[in-house]
Automatic annotation (TrEMBL):
<feature type="compositionally biased region" description="Polar residues">
    <location>
        <begin position="170"/>
        <end position="182"/>
    </location>
</feature>
<feature type="region of interest" description="Disordered">
    <location>
        <begin position="161"/>
        <end position="201"/>
    </location>
</feature>
<keyword id="KW-1003">Cell membrane</keyword>
<dbReference type="InterPro" id="IPR004166">
    <property type="entry name" value="a-kinase_dom"/>
</dbReference>
<dbReference type="InterPro" id="IPR011009">
    <property type="entry name" value="Kinase-like_dom_sf"/>
</dbReference>
<keyword id="KW-0418">Kinase</keyword>
<keyword id="KW-1015">Disulfide bond</keyword>
<comment type="similarity">
    <text>Belongs to the protein kinase superfamily. Alpha-type protein kinase family. ALPK subfamily.</text>
</comment>
<keyword id="KW-0472">Membrane</keyword>
<keyword id="KW-0808">Transferase</keyword>
<dbReference type="GO" id="GO:0005524">
    <property type="term" value="F:ATP binding"/>
</dbReference>
<feature type="domain" description="Alpha-type protein kinase">
    <location>
        <begin position="1"/>
        <end position="158"/>
    </location>
</feature>
<dbReference type="Pfam" id="PF02816">
    <property type="entry name" value="Alpha_kinase"/>
</dbReference>
<feature type="compositionally biased region" description="Basic and acidic residues">
    <location>
        <begin position="192"/>
        <end position="201"/>
    </location>
</feature>
<dbReference type="GO" id="GO:0004674">
    <property type="term" value="F:protein serine/threonine kinase activity"/>
</dbReference>
<comment type="function">
    <text>Protein kinase that recognizes phosphorylation sites in which the surrounding peptides have an alpha-helical conformation. Regulates cardiac development and cardiomyocyte differentiation by negatively regulating Wnt/beta-catenin signaling.</text>
</comment>
<keyword id="KW-0723">Serine/threonine-protein kinase</keyword>
């Protein structure tokens, strides 16, 4: 049933959020970490709707933090601490699952999130049925902009790996202070080495 699936999705995402919190909270300056609230399934055999879900009521301004499709751009995502940490959470899960899984539809009040979705690259990734299209993963990869929290967790930029094949030239001089006057070639940091280390798990 849809209700059971909804429970499964949210509680799976919740497990990832707990792992994320365990890794992020000890970092100096990271602060509070978003939490996905638990959702409980109730079985009511006598009722004509036998299954229902129960969750804590969130009081306050309800905000959608993550991109559901390319057209939806939410400024609160970029400007608020909760929004940035949600985007970092998406990036973290994406990296942890080698790009196979993405928690989408992050929404809620402040740092408390509910009604989230999951997109998987392959149907039945780790036996898990997502409830969102895998095109969300493509979109995330194209639209995600790393923020300070991604950096604190040492997540690899999706831009560099994405653009390496396509347009390696245009990104070269962007982050130099005044690239027009600098003729010196800046050596690339040992990026390949780092990729190698972090792809072990």
């Amino acid at each position: 049933s849809v209700v059971i699936q909804e429970c499964y999705v949210q509680n799976t995402a919740r497990e990832y959020a707990k792992l994320y919190a365990a890794e992020a909270e000890p970092l100096e300056g990271f602060g509070e970490v978003p939490e996905i609230i638990p959702i409980f399934l109730i079985h009511r055999p006598a009722n004509n709707i036998p299954y229902a879900t129960v969750e804590e009521e969130l009081v306050g301004e309800f905000v959608k933090y993550s991109v559901k499709d390319g057209k939806e751009v939410n400024f609160l995502r970029r400007d608020s601490e909760a929004g940035q940490k949600c985007c970092t959470f998406q990036h973290w899960v994406y990296e942890k699952t080698n790009g196979n899984l993405l928690v989408t539809d992050l929404q809620g009040v402040g740092m408390k999130l509910t009604d989230v979705g999951i997109a998987t690259l392959a149907k039945g990734y780790k036996g898990f049925k997502g409830n969102c299209s895998f095109s969300f993963i493509e979109q995330f990869r194209a639209l995600h902009q790393c923020n300070e929290y991604c950096e604190m967790l040492g997540l690899k930029s999706l831009r560099t790996t994405h653009q390496k094949q396509r347009k390696a030239t245009s990104t070269k001089s962007k982050n130099l202070p005044n690239s027009s006057t600098l003729k010196k070639i800046v050596p690339k940091k040992a990026r390949e080495h780092r990729d190698f280390i972090s792809s072990e798990h």
